[in-house]
């Protein structure tokens, strides 16, 4: 009996060691073998995928035509060589690129059965989208400051809004977008993804990816919320303060025609700001238990806003309308 006990222990210990080793290997593999994700997209019936594909295709085509057309008009017409249109050209560039990060992959997934995106592709999509969307927020604040100087200090406008300052404001917007994107992307993809690979969204975004993590995301959510506040609050404050001064200045103008002209130059910008920030705030205020509402809000600022921006500025802006007419007249003359 005494001689048999060591044999039992020798048999149990290797088995226990092998079981612990296997569990450790499984835990490691769950963290390391995440090579791709599945974009679940919208929860609709398969027969509606064609309709959604055509809708996305139409919206993306309008985005391409509108924003490329706006940039072409600004570049070709010398009368639009002003700070306001310099900012507007950059806005069209940003809208074009961050919608291109989302729309093509979403359209492919309506036809694809796998709906997969590689790990590197997911990282790139989140990084580029965060870069351009944050840059747009700061650029809209710079555009509000430009309107403030143009209306409140018109005699000093050409001096204050110099080419150097405009370039610095645009470069600063891209710099802030890049820093924010690096922090947000690195935080998201340092998490351990050992749950399902299915991202409940139509593109890689921070909140749906956090739901897949088996790590403690409490600190990540606090940092993400703090980062959002640092980005959104200053830009909103600049916009609100600028328009408070603009309104007080416009109300002092006795000429009715002068008031209309001043308000018309600001109404387009206010429309763009309202659509973008309204959708962003709606998405952040939507609880995690309503992912479909978050998708609708994301759709508004990722595709609807870039589609509406050129239409808003072209329909409400006489300078753009005249430049467009001039281009069309030249084409008709050549034909």
Automatic annotation (TrEMBL):
PROSITE patterns: G_PROTEIN_RECEP_F1_1, G_PROTEIN_RECEP_F1_2. Residues 66-313 form the G-protein coupled receptors family 1 profile domain. GO terms for molecular function: G protein-coupled receptor activity; olfactory receptor activity. Keywords: Cell membrane, G-protein coupled receptor, Membrane, Olfaction, Receptor, Sensory transduction, Transducer, Transmembrane, Transmembrane helix. It is found in: Cell membrane. The chain crosses the membrane at residues 50-73, 85-103, 123-145, 165-183, 222-246, 266-284, 296-315. InterPro entries: GPCR_Rhodpsn (IPR000276), GPCR_Rhodpsn_7TM (IPR017452), Olfact_rcpt (IPR000725). Pfam families: 7tm_4 (PF13853). It is a multi-pass membrane protein. One of its GO terms (cellular component) is plasma membrane. Belongs to the G-protein coupled receptor 1 family. PANTHER family: OLFACTORY RECEPTOR. This is Olfactory receptor. The gene is LOC116556883.
């Amino acid at each position: 009996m005494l001689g048999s006990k060591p044999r039992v222990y020798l048999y149990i210990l290797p088995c226990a060691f092998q079981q612990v080793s296997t569990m450790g290997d499984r835990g490691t593999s769950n963290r390391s073998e995440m090579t791709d994700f599945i974009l679940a997209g919208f929860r609709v019936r398969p027969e509606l995928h064609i309709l959604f594909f055509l809708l996305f295709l139409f919206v993306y085509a309008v985005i391409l035509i509108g924003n490329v057309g706006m940039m072409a008009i600004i570049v070709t017409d010398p009368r639009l060589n002003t700070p306001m249109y310099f900012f507007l050209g950059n806005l069209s560039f940003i809208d074009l690129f961050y919608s291109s990060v989302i729309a093509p992959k979403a359209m492919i997934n309506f036809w694809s059965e796998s709906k997969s995106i590689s790990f590197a592709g997911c990282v790139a999509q989140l990084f580029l989208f965060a870069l351009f969307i944050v840059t747009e927020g700061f650029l809209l604040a710079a555009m509000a400051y430009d309107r403030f100087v143009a209306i409140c200090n018109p005699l000093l406008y050409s001096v204050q809004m110099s080419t150097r300052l405009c370039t610095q404001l645009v470069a600063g917007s891209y710099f802030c977008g890049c820093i924010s994107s690096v922090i947000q992307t690195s935080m998201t993809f340092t998490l351990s993804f050992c749950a399902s690979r299915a991202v409940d969204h139509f593109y890689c975004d921070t909140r749906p990816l956090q739901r897949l993590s088996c790590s403690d995301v409490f600190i990540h959510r606090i940092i993400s919320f703090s980062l959002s506040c640092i980005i959104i609050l200053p830009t909103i404050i600049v916009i609100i303060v600028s328009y408070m001064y603009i309104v007080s200045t416009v109300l002092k103008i006795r000429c009715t025609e002068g008031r209309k002209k001043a308000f018309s130059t600001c109404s387009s910008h206010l429309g763009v700001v309202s659509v973008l920030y309204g959708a962003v705030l709606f998405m952040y205020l939507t609880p995690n238990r309503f992912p479909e509402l978050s998708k609708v809000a994301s759709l508004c600022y990722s595709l609807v806003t870039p589609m509406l921006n050129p239409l808003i500025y072209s329909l409400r802006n006489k300078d753009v309308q005249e430049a467009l007419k001039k281009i069309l007249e030249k084409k008709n003359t050549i034909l």
